Amino acid sequence: MRAVGIVVEYNPMHNGHAYHVARSRDVTGADVVVAVMSGNFLQRGEPALVNKWARAEMALRQGVDVVLELPAVYATQNAELFAWGAMACLEALGGIDTVCFGSESGAIDWMLELAERLAEEPEGFRARLREALAQGMSFPKAFGQAVNTWRAAQGLPPLPVDQPNNILGLHYCLALRRMNSAIRPVTIRREKAGYHDAAPTDKRIASATAIRRLWLEAGRLDAVRPYVPETTYAILRREEEAARAPMHWERLYPLLLHQFAVLEADEIAAIVDVDEGLEHRLLRAVRTAPSFEAFLRAAKTKRYTWTRLQRALVHLLLRLTKDRFRALDVRAGVPYLRVLGFTARGREFLRRRKKHLAVPLVTRASQLDHPLFAFDLRAARVYALGYPPEVAAAEWNREFRQPPVQV
Amino acid sequence: MRAVGIVVEYNPMHNGHAYHVARSRDVTGADVVVAVMSGNFLQRGEPALVNKWARAEMALRQGVDVVLELPAVYATQNAELFAWGAMACLEALGGIDTVCFGSESGAIDWMLELAERLAEEPEGFRARLREALAQGMSFPKAFGQAVNTWRAAQGLPPLPVDQPNNILGLHYCLALRRMNSAIRPVTIRREKAGYHDAAPTDKRIASATAIRRLWLEAGRLDAVRPYVPETTYAILRREEEAARAPMHWERLYPLLLHQFAVLEADEIAAIVDVDEGLEHRLLRAVRTAPSFEAFLRAAKTKRYTWTRLQRALVHLLLRLTKDRFRALDVRAGVPYLRVLGFTARGREFLRRRKKHLAVPLVTRASQLDHPLFAFDLRAARVYALGYPPEVAAAEWNREFRQPPVQV
């Protein structure tokens, strides 16, 4: 069985994603599609609109065969560590021939070449990155600038490293290179809606951002219908009817306020991504902020982007401290693989892989007691506390009851 | 101006309380009644039904002239420390001639005599108390038994130290004795409804417990009306209409679940009143408990009474750690006096006292930055998070806007 790996968030899974799954299978000739998916909290430091079980089901109904959960500790990090965690999952599973991702560029050669150069951590690049970060630039911006000024100094032309999916793709290549992985990266050009496009740009295709906005701001799930597969729509409706969706930051804001009420500044500074005195800025901003959005607007600066702040706040909610993070040794490879769901073909693939695995394949939360996994459970529980109280009470221990989704 | 001190919770203020205020003034011939009142969390480890500002107003409308807030760190402790904190407030204010409290016994002589003996910390008593506690008895029960077996060993008759208001009264006497205070304790016999009576026992008098039950369980504030002054009733209605009442533990349960989701067992064990492995019991009990009540029922034992568990859980919500508690040095006397409200007469009394005070008289939260006071602010903020989200956002910083209530 030939297998292709993909890295997804599906917040929610829309027509563009379904197209990406089908194309990934086609261009790589794969029999099996294995997705590494973020759990309940996403790379931009947000809770997913619907929980990971529902999103895993969306994936399985649109051609994905296996959904593995990207451990929570990787899911809310910058492109570099996010990509590293995702590639480490595919590498740990093994049997994966290619990884296929969308990018604005659609060309893999420059990514592979740049990854090879960056893998050696050249000082010319490192120094420029440090400098750009010290100027208060956000990581993606600093990264793009450092790459191109470093190349210019060598007389090389600039590369399109300022586009989010190019950056992510480059980091997949870089992670695979660093792991000496045999997985071959493949990219397909992203068509239609840009990642950040806020409004639908086509009759059937809209970005996840646009879709979220339609649901959250207009409060109209039916407005979303043209842009998502019918299978996704049915799941979204079910989750909305069960009062589990749409989840958003405002629902978790009381938990955040509680942390700011009872933690000392130095305890907040101990949280991952709370750096350079950010704790004081947050404590000031939260004092009179009537909503999460107002809070973030008050705290935001050029240096502390919306995404960076949101990540720090997820880490605060999950109590991911710098000490704990260091002890987790996230560069050592993933110590388990959490299975969120599979199709019949996916099950067969997992059965074959099982005897070769060096890490446990976790299908029940009670099977594993590991400090990295503890954060996945935290993330699931904290997310559930954003539901209305009666739903929260019922869902809060779901991880220990929920078997993998089978489609 | 002759002044009498009283210690109250007013959860809520009912006809029996109003009678106590009037009697306290009469029997002591006082011109001014100064109440030390618990803030938003009470001695039984519960959030008050209505917030402290509303309760201060109830008091001022029924004959109390000054309401001081008992610092939160004392308010949710056993009788001994609760009483110590309350007496320390009256002693720090000064100008108080008597303290007047209700008791089942109604006689002060045995309390004064027993307090004098206990003040010396006799080993015969101490050893018996330790032993009773080691057997798993609750503090009030162990205390009563230790007193009477110790007295029996000396051929002395038993004393009624098994009734809650007698115990509290005795501890007021003991605290004053230890402070070498000149304040003279006076007790009046509690009439009618016992402290724990669940159902009304008279046409106009019902215990606060019975009143809370009528409101919370029957959901009928009007059913409460016969048992409270009209001034109280109007305030309760206003608070209910503003969605600030009735507050209860279930509303804070999500915050508690969050703590159990993200704290390690040893971090829970670091909280005041989480002793002897209680953290493991709590973590087990919370795993499948759909409500605060179910959680407490699952955690409760003979040793861990409902009250003791609730106190530990308040401390967890406020993040009152053993280290922090030790550093606060609560036996050193209160470092400030927080004024929640006053009448015209009360204001005149405070004006006269002001020049004699060794500690700040705080009428605005922004006036003081003190680690003990920080817990009062935490308590107010955490309590506000039990309101519906929009109300919570508006109320969460109220401490910094609210001036003393003036009646």
Automatic annotation (TrEMBL), chains A, B:
Catalyzes the formation of N(4)-acetylcytidine (ac(4)C) at the wobble position of elongator tRNA(Met), using acetate and ATP as substrates. First activates an acetate ion to form acetyladenylate (Ac-AMP) and then transfers the acetyl group to tRNA to form ac(4)C34. InterPro entries: Rossmann-like_a/b/a_fold (IPR014729), tRNA(Met)_cyd_acetate_ligase (IPR008513). One of its GO terms (biological process) is tRNA modification. It holds the Pfam family HIGH_NTase1. This is tRNA(Met) cytidine acetate ligase. It catalyses: cytidine(34) in elongator tRNA(Met) + acetate + ATP = N(4)-acetylcytidine(34) in elongator tRNA(Met) + AMP + diphosphate. Keywords: ATP-binding, Cytoplasm, Ligase, Nucleotide-binding, RNA-binding, tRNA processing, tRNA-binding. Belongs to the TmcAL family. The lineage of its organism: Bacteria, Bacillati, Bacillota, Bacilli, Bacillales. One of its GO terms (molecular function) is tRNA binding. It is found in: Cytoplasm. The gene is ylbM. HAMAP family: TmcAL. One of its GO terms (cellular component) is cytoplasm. The keyword ATP-binding applies. Its EC number is 6.3.4.-. The keyword tRNA-binding applies. ATP binds at residues 7-20, 102, 165, 190.
